[in-house]
């Protein structure tokens, strides 16, 4: 195990804090909450032994309940308690040794013999009985030191082949202690803990002790011992936290859960990642060489002084920037950015923390950005429905809300989750509306347009798949918009190609387009209710390479099905709007309401009622699965209501928020970049650049995150101009090169998969 994982293990065992009342946050890393199946999978063929007093017995019960929640706290309290799951082949024993004495020593000594099977994990600890029986005398402490000194070498020997943990004593709540326990004071507990730490840590002369100190339970107890029933034993929730910490310490390095960064070594670089690192390194070196040569050439041509006149002669020739320079510069910047991505979310260089939701962490930032958005408002260049500034604004505020939703962990609050689902649907609605409008008005079905859109949508994700070693489907939104763009393109490009120019001459063509849309809706319904057919289509090679996640396409089917109708709704809305616009039914002048006053007021009233009705329904949701089932059919209600509220009043249509619009222009990059450089552990946690100061950390990490997203947007635009030329013959050559690149990537990916298995 690497140094980083050892450090995070020490942090997990020794430090942390509570987020709220019952959520424990280790210092610098994330703790995974193990399910029954995961715990059994990790502990298969394993033997875990707990040795000690009643406190260790409590920890034993909580640990076993992770494996079997039905296990009851029964049996002889002052005796050994066995547990075995024969199906999972897991054995956990509690051995009653309430004092560190000869009896405990003999138990441990048996395991040190070569012929005896040793437990894989040993959790030991005791002290309170010694304090109680000997009435807290100094002689008892001296005897404790002697006994633990004799046990220390045995524990150290066991620690070479097993994981050995010494549990330090938790504080007590002295006011609640019964009369026969009044001698157990926190002062005496501290003395016993100091003795145990000093002796066990000095058991090896020349190296660090292999016996790990389980001191984190002391911190947990300091916050929760007041809830104890007897002042000595911890409440159940605290014991469960300690047991889960033990499970993380042992199992994280085995199962490697994404949201369990504690005790995990840095994943080894794959062959593809190494090749990517070489490529970016060469790009940086190439650009530096190019820059030095260009700079030297520029110095030769710089201004010089005319000796006769004493005036400067200026070289007025501006050398155009070559495509090669733009290419090298873009890949140079991208290489540095990708190095930052890797350091943030793969190299264990920066800390990660679990999310913790409270209403204030979600709603206060929402109010703050809303005030900023309203403050920065300007007049639009045009006053048409869903004009460019307005759609950028819409994307911008939605993206900011989604970012706050992700970092605050608001997905645990169902009403917020349902409203965020509408925002995701609104993005897809705009996909249907925007691409349909373009093809309908322009009639441009050329390969250049398709390649430009596909490149802009997928470039960053493809790079991240390579650098971060993640499947394409992991960034689910990009595959979603990519597939829907291709669906829109195929629907409109297939014979007969019906565009606005053709339809204006004959209304029959409008009917033909509606038939196309009806057929599209029929296909959507068929795939939505035929999971088998859907999975067969997307399980075909090479589609399976793009849409599989964890060996199947279920996640892709679920994501696609969740918003299956909204792109169709966007296309239909665009068709109706453009038809009404062509017939001059709408009044889109500056300051004018969209319809006559009576119709505008009526539609505005209906829209507000519909908007609020949907919000009330979403806020009253009790079951996520049932609400998700209704969402595809009803999400369009709130989307259309918002569009009408935003566009019917002329004054509302004539202004937009430049603040939101700026973020809207980089919304795709923001959505993708958040996975690794704002959030952490593939969105499961939060990146910590500045530990100990959450507010400053979020300010710094957000600033870097937004700057990086903006820079990547510029890089993508620059590369799109070079890699996707307008000339068809050049474009076909580039496409052949891109196809060869992806073929090579597939071959390397297959080699990697075989080597892993």
From TrEMBL:
Gene transcribed to yield this protein: CASD1
MF annotations from Gene Ontology: N-acetylneuraminate 9-O-acetyltransferase activity
Listed InterPro entries: Cas1_AcylTrans_dom (IPR012419), NXPE4_C (IPR057106)
Its membrane topology: Multi-pass membrane protein
Residue intervals of the NXPE C-terminal domain: 24-73
Transmembrane segments: 271-293, 326-344, 356-376, 397-418, 453-469, 475-495, 507-529, 562-580, 601-618, 660-681, 687-710, 731-751
One GO process term, biological-process aspect: carbohydrate metabolic process
Keywords for the protein's UniProt record, in alphabetical order: Acyltransferase, Glycoprotein, Golgi apparatus, Membrane, Transferase, Transmembrane, Transmembrane helix
Subcellular location(s) per record: Golgi apparatus membrane
Organism: Leptonychotes weddellii (Weddell seal)
Pfam families: Cas1_AcylT (PF07779), NXPE4_C (PF24536)
Organism superkingdom: Eukaryota
The protein, known as: N-acetylneuraminate (7)9-O-acetyltransferase
Catalytic activity annotation: a ganglioside GD3 (d18:1(4E)) + acetyl-CoA = a ganglioside Ac-O-7-GD3(d18:1(4E)) + CoA; CMP-N-acetyl-beta-neuraminate + acetyl-CoA = CMP-N-acetyl-7-O-acetyl-beta-neuraminate + CoA; CMP-N-acetyl-beta-neuraminate + acetyl-CoA = CMP-N-acetyl-9-O-acetyl-beta-neuraminate + CoA
One cellular component term from this protein's GO annotations in UniProt: Golgi membrane
E.C. number(s) listed in UniProt: 2.3.1.45
Domain Cas1p 10 TM acyl transferase: from-to ranges: 256-735
């Amino acid at each position: 195990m690497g140094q980083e994982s050892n450090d995070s293990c020490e942090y997990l065992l020794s430090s942390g804090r509570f987020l709220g009342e019952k959520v424990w946050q280790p210092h610098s890393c994330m703790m995974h909450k193990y399910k029954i199946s995961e715990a059994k999978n990790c502990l298969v063929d394993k033997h875990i032994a707990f040795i000690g007093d009643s406190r260790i017995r409590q920890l034993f019960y909580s640990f076993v309940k992770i494996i079997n929640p039905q296990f009851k706290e029964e049996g002889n309290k002052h005796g050994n308690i066995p547990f075995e799951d024969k199906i999972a082949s897991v054995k956990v024993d509690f051995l009653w040794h309430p004092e560190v004495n000869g009896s405990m020593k003999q138990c441990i000594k048996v395991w040190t013999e070569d012929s005896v099977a040793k437990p894989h994990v040993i959790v030991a600890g005791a002290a309170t009985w010694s304090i109680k029986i000997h009435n807290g005398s100094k002689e008892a402490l001296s005897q404790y030191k002697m006994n633990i000194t004799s046990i220390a070498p045995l524990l150290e020997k066991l620690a070479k082949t097993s994981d050995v943990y010494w549990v330090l004593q938790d504080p007590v709540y002295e006011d609640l202690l019964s009369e026969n326990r009044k001698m157990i004071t926190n002062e005496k507990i501290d003395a016993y803990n100091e003795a145990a730490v000093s002796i066990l840590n000095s058991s090896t002369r020349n190296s660090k002790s292999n016996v790990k100190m389980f001191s984190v339970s002391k911190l947990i107890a300091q916050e929760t011992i007041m809830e104890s029933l007897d002042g000595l034993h911890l409440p159940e929730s605290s014991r469960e936290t300690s047991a889960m910490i033990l499970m993380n310490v042992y199992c994280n390095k085995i199962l490697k859960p994404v949201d369990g960064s504690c005790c995990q070594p840095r994943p080894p670089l794959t062959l593809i990642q190494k090749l990517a690192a070489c490529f970016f390194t060469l790009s940086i070196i190439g650009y530096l060489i190019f820059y030095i040569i260009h700079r030297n050439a520029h110095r030769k041509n710089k201004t010089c002084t005319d000796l006769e006149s004493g005036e400067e002669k200026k070289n007025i020739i501006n050398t155009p920037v070559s495509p090669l320079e733009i290419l090298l510069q873009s890949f140079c910047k991208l290489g540095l950015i990708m190095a930052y991505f890797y350091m943030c979310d793969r190299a264990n260089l920066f800390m990660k923390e679990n999310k913790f939701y409270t209403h204030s962490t979600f709603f206060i930032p929402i109010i703050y950005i809303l005030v900023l958005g309203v403050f920065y408002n300007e007049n639009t260049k045009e006053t048409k429905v869903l004009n460019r500034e307005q759609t950028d604004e819409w994307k911008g505020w939605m993206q900011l809300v989604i970012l706050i939703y992700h970092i605050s962990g608001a997905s645990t609050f169902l009403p917020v989750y349902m409203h965020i689902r509408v925002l995701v649907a609104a993005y897809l609605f705009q996909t249907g509306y925007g691409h349909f409008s373009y093809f309908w008005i322009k009639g441009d079905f050329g390969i250049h347009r398709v390649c430009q859109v596909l490149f802009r949508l997928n470039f960053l994700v493809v790079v991240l798949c390579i650098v971060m070693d993640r499947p394409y489907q992991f960034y689910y939104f990009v595959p979603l918009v990519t597939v829907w763009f291709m669906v829109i393109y195929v629907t409109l490009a297939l014979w007969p190609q019906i565009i606005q120019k053709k339809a204006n001459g004959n209304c029959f063509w409008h009917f033909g387009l509606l038939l196309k849309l009806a057929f599209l809706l029929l296909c959507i319904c068929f795939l939505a209710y035929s999971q088998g057919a859907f999975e067969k289509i997307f399980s075909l090679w090479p589609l399976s390479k793009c849409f599989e996640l964890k060996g199947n396409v279920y996640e892709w089917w679920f994501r696609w099905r969740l918003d299956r109708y909204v792109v169709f709704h966007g296309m239909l809305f665009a068709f109706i709007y453009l038809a009404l616009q062509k017939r001059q039914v709408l009044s889109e002048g500056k300051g004018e309401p969209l319809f006559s006053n009576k119709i505008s007021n009526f539609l505005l009233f209906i829209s507000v009622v519909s908007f609020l009705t949907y919000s009330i329904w979403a806020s009253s949701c009790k079951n996520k699965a049932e609400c998700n089932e209704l969402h595809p059919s009803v999400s369009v209600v709130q989307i259309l209501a918002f569009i009408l509220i935003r566009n019917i009043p002329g004054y509302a249509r004539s202004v937009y928020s430049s603040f939101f619009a700026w973020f809207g222009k980089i919304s795709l990059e923001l959505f993708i970049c958040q996975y690794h450089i704002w959030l952490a552990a593939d969105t499961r946690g939060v990146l910590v650049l500045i530990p100990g100061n959450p507010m400053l950390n979020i300010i710094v990490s957000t600033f870097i995150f937004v700057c990086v997203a903006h820079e990547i947007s510029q890089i993508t635009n620059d590369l799109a101009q070079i890699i996707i030329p307008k000339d068809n013959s050049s474009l076909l050559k580039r496409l052949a090169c891109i196809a060869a690149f992806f073929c090579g990537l597939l071959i390397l990916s297959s080699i990697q998969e075989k080597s892993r298995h």
